[in-house]
Each structure stands twice: as structure tokens, then as C-alpha cells.
TrEMBL record:
Name by which UniProt lists this protein: SDR family oxidoreductase
Pfam family, any one: Epimerase
Domain NAD-dependent epimerase/dehydratase: 3-216
Species: Kribbella karoonensis
CDD domains (UniProt xref): SDR_a7 (cd05262)
Superkingdom of origin organism: Bacteria
Amino acid sequence: MKVFVTGGTGLIGSAVVRELLGSGHEVVGLARSEGSAAALREAGAEAVRGGLGDLDVVRAGAAKADGVIHLAFSNDFSSPEALAAGVAEEAAALQALGEELVGSGRPLVTVSGTPWVAGRASTEEDPVPTDGPVGGRGRSVTAALALAERGVRSAAVRMPRTVHNEGSGGFAGLLTQIARQSGVSGYPGDGSQRWPAVHALDAAVLFRLVLENAPAGTAWHAVDDEGDAVRDIAAVIGRRLGLPVQPVPEETYGPLGPIFAADQPSSSARTRQALNWRPQHPKLLDDLENITA
């Protein structure tokens, strides 16, 4: 299968590209910079220059492919305005990808976060939120799944709050970054709130399985750790960096503060059973031992 991939040089995307190539697929990656293009070519993929905002390039990539995996996002959480701009850019690109595939029966695999449900772990049957700081992403993914009614084999892989590899990535990675800057390994509230997690290499396998096998209009959970307490995550970070571990105000985390403070465990039981997905790489707390001061 010839697969068009956006975001193919990030933590998740680079793992997905290697997984696809290693399984016999061809990959064409959208490259925003020459550095990204070089990384894609070095991995064995073809690169086309452009960003998510270059809708003609995005459409052309989808038109020439047997399937699409969309992973790109601006990841600018510096302000509510920057976050909103990234959400809007992604929405337009995802709409363009979907419209190009209408009536073709080809797969469109997109990404979202796992939902949070009060009092229990969320499951694949729970809807993603469509309000709040990242509600726009939920609306975009919901619209993409609805393309199943228009002849697109659309599916969503829901990612946990931390996707990690060698101690880097996701919300735990942001905690590490902020700890380095502030001199404190902090957490909001009492730290008992739980975050799900997955190793990037395990997530990459799931993206391939969904691309190859998932029915139209379905959502899947790339979750290995159902929920690690944030204070436990902060404790490992603090020990590895030699920093004090303590609660900090929710506002420390800007527009992500309410999400950082939320208890949001998630299950992948249905995903594992239906797609025979079996995570094999280190869990989050073990992987954070790779952090160096």
C-alpha cells in the first residue's frame, strides 16, 4: 500500500513511518522543512514539501495514495490563541484529506486524544470531547469518522496523554521540560490524577493495524498504561533530575492546565481483543528512567 503520512518526522510519526516501511508499505511524507524531508528520505520514504496549511499539496498527496495517516499538529501550546490556530489549521487539512478520499473506499486514519469520563477509565465507545481547550480537535475527528457514510474507510487512533520513547514525549515530556526550566518537578493538585501512556513504537504498530484492518467509522485506543498517577511521574522526573518534587498551581501549565489537572485513565481492552494489538515496549515509569540531568 502507498501511504501518505502527515507529521511523519515527529516522535510518533517517525515510528509510524518505520513501522510501515518495515511491513512492506511505501510511504510518502509531508515535509514542512528540508530537514524533515531529509529525515524522511533517510528512513526510506519519499518526501513532498509542504505544511498542513498547503491544502493543494495535502489534497495531491491523498489523491495519489492508497491510504492516508494524519499525524501532523502544530504543538504550539504557548497561548490559547496559538493553540486555537493549530486546531483550525488541522481541521482544514483533515477536511481536505477526507474530501479527496470520498467514494474511494480508501483508509483515512487520523489521531485524537483519549476521552476522559468521571469515575472510570474511558473506553473506545466513549465520545471524544468537543468543547474545552482542544474541543476543536474532537469535532474534526468526529467529522472524519462520519466520512464512513461517504465511502471513506475512516478510523481514529486515540492517543493517551503521554506517548514516550527513551524518556521523552507527551505530557510527561512537558513536565520534564518545565521541571528543567523551573527547578521544581511539579504537578497540579494533589497529583493523584491519572494519565494513560504508551510507548511510541507500540503506538506505531497500532496505526499500521488500523490502516490495514479497521472497519470504517471506528475508534481505537493506543493505551498501554491505563493510568499513572501524575505525582508518581513527577517523582521519577525529580529523582532523575535531582530536583524537589512538589505541587504547583494549575496555571503553571497555561491553556493545558485544566487537562493536566484532570483524572483521565483509559482502557484499550477492545482494541487489544479486536486487532490483536500487544504492546511490548517499556511502560512510562520505567522509560522515564532514561531521563538524564
